[in-house]
Amino acid sequence: MRRIDRKTLILVLFFIVFSFINIDIAMAERWEYGITEDEEGINFTNTTAIVDTEKREIRLPKVMPNMVDFLGDGFEYIVLTPEGVKKVNTDGSMTLVAEKGDPNNPISAIAGSSHPDFIVARENTVTHYSFTGSEYVPNPAFATGGYTNVLSVGTKELDHAILNSDGNVTYQAFTGDAMVPANALSPKGFSNPIAMTVFKDHYGIAVVDGDEIKYFKEGSSVTSTISGLTNILSISAADGGNIAVVANNQVKHYNLLEGNAFAYNSHLSTIAGLTSPTCVALRPGSYDRIIVDGNKVNYYMWTGSEFVKNGTMSKEITGLQDIGKYLPKAVAESIVYSLTGDKMATHIKLWIDTEEEPMDLPEGTKIKWFISASEDDDSWIETELGKWIALPEPGKDFRWKAELSTTNRNNTPKIFPVIVLQTNSRPDPPEVYEPTGCYLNSSPVIHWKYNDPDGDPQNGFQIVVTKRTGEIILDQTVKSGEHKYIIDKEATGFLWDTGTSEFSVKVKVWDTLTDSEGNDVEGVESEWSETINFCVIAYDRPVISKIVTPHSSDIAISKGMSVEDIPKTKAGGLVTLEVDSIGVDSAKFEFPYLTKFATIAETKIMEGYEDKTNKKWQVS
Fold it and tell me: Residues 103, 108, 111, 117: is their CA dihedral positive or negative?
């Protein structure tokens, strides 16, 4: 762009002002989620983490894949409560049948055995409880031990199988006299063990290994696999090849086919209204099931066409959702925040606005953050808190997601409020004004036009000046709202020292945003301006090297020097002046004195500078 005279400048400024008045400016926007009951900011359909509005934190859920089970094929069932194992009778009453016991060796799983017995697994032991006719008592004949952090259990008549945290299954078979490990029925080597179940009508075992369900039909080799699931928490098998799975806030049903593959059964996966299911148990001989959903234990009976909730045998138990170990992974996802009208944003930033620590990350835990500018579930971009992210393309619908995980299931990461999502559109590349000719000043002023689609003011800029060869001579970042920069403002001879008079310049800018306290903060940067070439023809750093009358020497004449401070001489005095030049090949010097001009005795290029672009001159 050419340098414009004053009259043209007035017209251009009028046009800019008029344009801003008529444009629908898309101001940068921000949305906050404070983890409080009166705020709607979470997509609970896709959220599997605990959003605790009382403690104002987001954390992993505690789960136990086997915290409820039927007692054989009867209607009664057992459930693990904060007080211990309770039996729910057909009339809806509850009976404590096994104490919670040693808190240092907590119950980790329960399962119904041969009616009416059940088993209780702790960290490294399994206790079998038998009914005497009046009470339940431990039966040492069916007890086993020596395990490593029991995660899940399954039973078939008097047999039981244990899934350990080391990724191995141990199947214990009752021989008639004792419990004996059955190695042929004990698959091993699971990388992310979560839960298991045993079929009631054959020796098949299904193990949840990460996001896969691996089926072993009467052996230790995988027979078939169910994949395509996420966030699997619990699994239960009955007879007839039926299994139910809690995955991604749903309870899904599968049937075993003749070829040993499983098929999804949509008719038996129709239970609606679930909020945060964590455990499921199937009743042998039927499609009835119990689902643990938060603090609720819901009993659903199959009528032949639909599930009906049995209100008498469904229970709500305070503290149920806090039993167990933390789930290895869960997510919290926001609702979709949308810009109004046709407004679009090019950048997005996520951070936590709090005076305290924004997150708690105990040993073995971590949190990954993601943002999206689309409602497409595959459009997530991993991000860092507090960092502006350039979107692949402008968007108007935005979400955030936190992925919480732990390798130590006794610990959970936590997120504290306030979670802030902010959008912004980057400023346009600045338009650097191009001079019509060379700058006649050794401290040229570089001007540019600034424009931001959101109407945000400039916060700062970066300017890079190079020689025409590409060698960088100036790279400076300045926090300033001014749309100009003075090169060598202090007249240090910076450009003269480069040895050239032809240069190139480019500029990029940052816009200004406002934080929650009303302070101006740096926004996002523009792309670079076009590179503009310019030249300089100027004198620089004049120095009085010698005055004979009155005698003085080496007096620099600086920019802005007052008349009183300029060196003086008398009529007839001899003065020698040295001056630098940039891009000057020939020079003529004049020194006005009242109505006359001083006599120039000699003008010459100082020795060694004759062939240089930037020279030193001596005038006397």
Answer: negative
Alpha helices in 53-149 (DSSP H): none
- SS3 labels along 572-597: CCCEEEEEEEECCCCCCCCCEECCEE
Q: What is the pLDDT of residue 559?
A: 65
Return d(Cα 524, Cα 420) in angstroms, integer.
Answer: 17
3 state DSSP class of 56: coil
Which region holds residue 517: left if phi is over 0, alpha if psi is between -120 and 50, else beta? alpha
Angle at 270 between CA 264 and CA 271, to 5 degrees: 130
Cβ–Cβ under 8 Å, residues 261 and 229: no
Beta bridge partners of 556: 543
What's the pLDDT score for residue 560? 67
475: tokens are 């790279």
Amino acid residing at 40: E
Distance, first Cα to last Cα, the chain: 42
3 state SS for 78-105: EEEECCEEEEECCCCCEEEEEECCCCCC
486-504: string of b/e by CB count within 10 Å (b at 16+)? ebbeebeebbbebebbbbb
CB 461 within 8 A of CB 529: no
Q: Is 102 left (phi over 0), alpha (psi -120 to 50) or beta?
A: beta
- Beta-strand relationship, 414-415 and 193-198: unpaired
- Please tell me the predicted confidence (pLDDT) of residue 280: 97
What lies within 8 Å, CB to CB, of 515 at 6+ separation is 353, 521
Question: What residues are paired with 88 via a beta bridge?
Answer: 77, 94
Angstrom distance (rounded) from CA 198 to CA 207: 9
Q: Which stretches in the chain have pLDDT values below 50?
A: 1-26
Amino acid, single-letter form, for residue 254? Y
- pLDDT, residue 7, reads 28
**pLDDT at position 21, please?**
29
The DSSP code sequence of 517-554 is: TS-EEEEEE-PPPPPEEEEB-EEEEEEEEEETTTTB--
**Closest alpha carbon to 334 in 367, 304, 371:** 371
Q: Which two tokens stand for residue 327?
A: 């789930």
**Rounded Cα–Cα distance for residues 190 and 212 (Å):** 11
Q: Which residues of 259-281 are buried (b: 16+ CB within 10 A; e: fewer)?
A: eeebeebeebeebeeeebbbbbb
CA distance 442 to 491: 7
Name the token pair of 105. 């060796």
- Per-residue confidence (pLDDT) for residue 389, from 0 to 100: 86
In this predicted structure, what is the pLDDT of residue 316?
96
Token pair listed for 337: 């925040």
- Identify the residue whose tokens are 């599968």: 254
| Beta carbons within 10 angstroms of residue 372's beta carbon | 22
